Amino acid sequence: MTNTTVTAPKGFRAGSAACGIKAGGALDVGVLVADAPCSAAAVFTQNRFCGAPIVVGREHMLSGKLRAIVVNSGCSNVATGRQGIRDARTMCKLVGDAIGTPSGQVLPASTGVIGEFLPMDKLTVGIEQAMRSLSNSASAGKRFVRAIMTTDLKIKQACERVRVGRSTVTIGGCCKGSGMIAPNMATMLGYITTDAKVPPARLRRLLQAAVEPTFNRVTVDECQSTSDMVAIMASGAGGALGSKRAEASFTAALLDVCASLAYQIAADGEGATRVLEIVVTGAKTAADAHAAARAVAVSPLVKTAVHGGDPNWGRIVQAIGQTAVRYKPEDVVVRLGRTVLFRKQAPTRQLDKKKLAGLMRKKHVTIGVDLGAGKASDRVLTCDLSREYITINADYHT
Amino acid sequence: MTNTTVTAPKGFRAGSAACGIKAGGALDVGVLVADAPCSAAAVFTQNRFCGAPIVVGREHMLSGKLRAIVVNSGCSNVATGRQGIRDARTMCKLVGDAIGTPSGQVLPASTGVIGEFLPMDKLTVGIEQAMRSLSNSASAGKRFVRAIMTTDLKIKQACERVRVGRSTVTIGGCCKGSGMIAPNMATMLGYITTDAKVPPARLRRLLQAAVEPTFNRVTVDECQSTSDMVAIMASGAGGALGSKRAEASFTAALLDVCASLAYQIAADGEGATRVLEIVVTGAKTAADAHAAARAVAVSPLVKTAVHGGDPNWGRIVQAIGQTAVRYKPEDVVVRLGRTVLFRKQAPTRQLDKKKLAGLMRKKHVTIGVDLGAGKASDRVLTCDLSREYITINADYHT
Fold first, then answer.
1. pLDDT at A8
2. Which CATH number is A72's domain given?
3. Residues A377 and A285 in one domain
4. B149 phi and psi, to 5 degrees?
5. Cα–Cα distance between A394 and B304 in angstroms, integer?
6. Is residue A180 part of a domain?
7. B152 and B225: one domain?
8. What phi and psi values does residue A181 have, to the nearest 5 degrees?
9. Domain residues for A341?
10. What is the CATH number of the domain that holds B365?
11. Are residues B281 and B180 part of one domain?
């Protein structure tokens, strides 16, 4: 089996353990360790009640160097005050001590219920166990992803190999994220490894550019998590991005990895049965395009209609009408797939409802909105809203 | 039986009919007719793809005079271009002709599916029939409310009698609204009648003041309707608001009617099993207080947790953290009922989860957030988010 996980790039090992934070013996501790300190970059949630691991993680990222990442699932260590900060530091120290690295080179993360303290006795045992299981095998990489999952039903990973100069470098990525997903900087836990050689400042620039059109364009429920981040580590064990052309290839591959992971998040949104892609064109500015796409993507009425395969497209118009985006109503055109539904403030005559219902029932539904006000465009991914979302979230905690 | 409907104030009759726009012979046309032209005021939706009846209604309200209101349910006449405008005018003309009034003194409204043309043949018959059924009885008033309902499960009405000087005036109100409810000017169809004598400009001022803290503080799904309005007609057949004291009494009674109707909307929100009241105190400005309250009220994660009676209060903190509202995280206090959950960035020790779950399972759940940043406060009403909301909206159209 070809390794397509985060351990595919040279220089990385992953480990995991089940320490009892999650019920039923599920994996709940993951560690990702590089053979040597890596160039690294990360983006973090903008939620102001961010978790303790975010506070500590931001501090640790200042150096632009990482040796390891440690994650637990089942408890997010958010809204936990000073005790939470101490616990996040302890997580880093346990990993740092085990590999003889300052704990400042370890990035911590926790995901799960907000407002509870980490059970540090269990977690200490779990981290020790995870460290003992370190391996660069594909199965270790896959188990790492399972260890960071919460309500995710599917493992989310992506891998690209790309020629840079005379060598081939690999990018491996994974993420977790299903609910509490909003299109704002860092919307889930995402970890990317590469054996390309890229200095920290450049890596940060490349990561931000890749995150913006991918992870920052996914919404499940427009709830911005308190815990989330995307981090990348570059071991340099593969090859350097010497030429402009090599950097362009690498950039494209990194974008592909992020786009694939972002799509997987939308497809595995809590309770999702379809992916919904909103494409807005003809906006006056990029901000307008984004706002319009987002207005449709967050509408529970649009999302439930898509869920039911109900061609109730008037709700798309309603959502656009609610925004402050600049357009003249008479210029707006709304499409479902390639079918024009609405133009000149009226429905297209002879709309075939059965055909529309069919378009709404696809695995991937595309809604197009042309605002007729300019040349800017944007695209947001989301999923339908189902009873299952309610079931998952009404009983998550208990 | 005392009449507590919109026909309770002197000078109003209501009529209704079932003309086949709604399935199963349900009432779908309502008319509310005053014995003589009334002083009137209305507020309308701010959605920019507003329906044809809104366009026509705004025009008709310029005079500040109304003789009648005509409403159909089952089809909203929104996104219907010029044909829609013609149809809304026809509705007014049919009523105006029947009572010998210019159609400019008739306020039209339509509610239901967006993007379909009104079946004018059926509706013409329905309006004629509704006009023949006009009566000032309580049952006629009640049937009018049923005629304007869409996904509402309950009839929503409120009535107050108030002493002004030597006479007693009556205010009767009714509304429909269950989904597509957002806290923005005019969130449903609401009709208020009174036999007090109040000139149009004053009536508009009083209506706006009453709508702001009531209808504009309810959200079900944060979707702003394209059709909605609140209108008031004052027949003057009761008494005038002579003194300041009389006006104050009338204002208070009008506020009570609106507050009662708004509460009934939250309680009958699509799929609702509980009312959720978010009270924000200690905000720097009124706008901050409103934004914070609204952030919690629109969170599907908070709303599903309340639905499940799951004391997952960390989601309240998450929602507040997502806003741009000014506060220091360490000053924020979160309460459920009277129980403090979160203070100084950490959970209160010894939180009894069973007790919290009990508080979450009440018919009326109050979430308190003190931002510790100033003296402004606000309050938003919403409901829990249940599987039933999805069921209703996934299959609404078909």
1. 96
2. 3.60.70.12
3. yes
4. -75, 150
5. 5
6. yes
7. yes
8. -115, 115
9. 275-394
10. 3.10.20.340
11. no
Q: Which one of B322, B353, B356 makes the best mutation probe of the A interface by having the most chain A beta carbons within 10 Å?
A: B322
Tokens of A93: 């120290």
**What are the tens digits of pLDDT across the range A295-307?**
999 888 888 888 8
Residue A98 lies in a domain: yes
Distance CA A228, CA B357 (A): 27
Both tokens of A136, joined, read 């660069």
Confidence of residue B221 (pLDDT cuts 50, 70, 90): low
User: ipTM higher than 0.90?
Assistant: no
Helix (H, G, I), strand (E, B) or coil at B42: strand
Residues B229 and B348 both lie in one domain: no
Side chain identity at B30, as an amino acid letter?
G
Task: Pick the last residue of a domain from A203, A236, A267.
Answer: A267
> Measured between alpha carbons, how far is A38 from A201 in angstroms, rounded to an integer?
13
Dihedrals φ, ψ of B364, to 5°?
-130, 110
Residue A168 has pLDDT above 70, yes or no: yes
In a domain, A6, yes or no: no
Q: Where does a domain end: B243, B267, B291? A: B267
Cβ neighbours of A394 in B, within 8 Å: 304-305, 307-308, 310, 386
Looking at every residue in chain A, the average pLDDT score rounds to: 89
Considering the domain architecture, whether residues A178 and A315 belong to the same structural domain is answered as no
Contact call for residues A188 and A228 (beta carbons, < 8 A)? yes
Kindly report the backbone phi and psi dihedral angles of residue B48, in degrees, each rounded to the nearest multiple of 5, phi listed first. Answer: -80, -15
Q: How many helices and strands (H and E) does chain A possess?
A: 11, 14
**Taking CB atoms and an 8 Å cutoff, what residues of chain B touch A314?**
76, 78-79, 113-116, 226
Q: What is the pTM of this model?
A: 0.81
Chain A residues inside the 8 Å CB shell of B79: 314, 317, 342, 345-347
- The answer on B251 and B285 residing in a single domain is no
For residues B259 and B299, membership in a common domain is answered with: no
DSSP states of A156-199 as a string? EEEEEEEEETTEEEEEEEEEE-SSS--SSS--SEEEEEE-SB--
How would DSSP label each residue in B133-190?
A: T-B-SHHHHHHHHHHH-SS--S-EEEEEEEEETTEEEEEEEEEE-SSS--SSS--SEE
Cβ–Cβ gap A79/B317 under 8 Å: yes
**What pairs with residue B173 in β-bridges?**
B158, B192
Per-residue pLDDT band at B395 (split at 50, 70, 90):
low
Classify residue A7: in a domain, yes or no.
no
B224/B181 Cα distance (integer angstroms): 6
Q: Domain count of chain B?
A: 2
Q: Are residues B248 and B291 in the same domain?
A: no
Q: Rg for chain B (alpha carbons), in Å?
A: 22
As beta bridge partners, residue A342 has: A334, A347
Contact A113 B182 (CB under 8 A): no
Listed in sequence order, the DSSP H helices in chain A are 52-61, 81-99, 120-132, 138-148, 200-211, 244-267, 286-298, 300-308, 314-321, 353-360, 387-394
pLDDT tens, residue by residue, B229-280: 889 999 999 989 888 899 999 999 999 999 999 899 888 888 888 999 999 9
| B176 within 8 A of B156, measured Cβ to Cβ | yes
